[in-house]
Specification:
This protein is of the alpha+beta class. It is 20% helix and 53% strand. A four-stranded antiparallel sheet has the order 1-2-3-4. The N and C termini lie close together (8 Å).
């Protein structure tokens, strides 16, 4: 399981899905309470990291990339930023 601390005590957790380990669950939590969850395959995440600037996902959880920074949005509000390199390193460990 991967965990990133974001702004205002938000935490982004990424873990393999139990039924389909090739898919990942991206979960935003605040003080242990799950606020949003998105299930996605590993390849779309890697394509997003390696690809040009842009965004991934529509809905309550969204990712947006500019150069080497990935911004995490929940319900349209930015809740944190992760370096693309750090996310890639952690994904490779799964």
């Amino acid at each position: 399981m991967i965990s990133f601390r974001l702004l205002n005590d938000y935490v982004l957790k990424i873990e393999p899905e139990k039924e389909k380990p090739s898919r990942l669950k991206l979960i935003v939590k605040l003080m242990g309470k799950e606020l949003v969850c998105r299930k996605e395959g590993l390849n779309p995440l890697l394509d997003f990291i390696y690809g040009p600037d842009g965004s991934l996902f529509k809905g309550r959880l969204q990712l947006s990339k500019k150069k080497t920074a990935i911004n995490i949005y929940m319900k349209g509000d930015i809740i944190g930023t992760i370096e693309a390199r750090n996310l890639l390193e952690e994904l490779e460990k799964l």
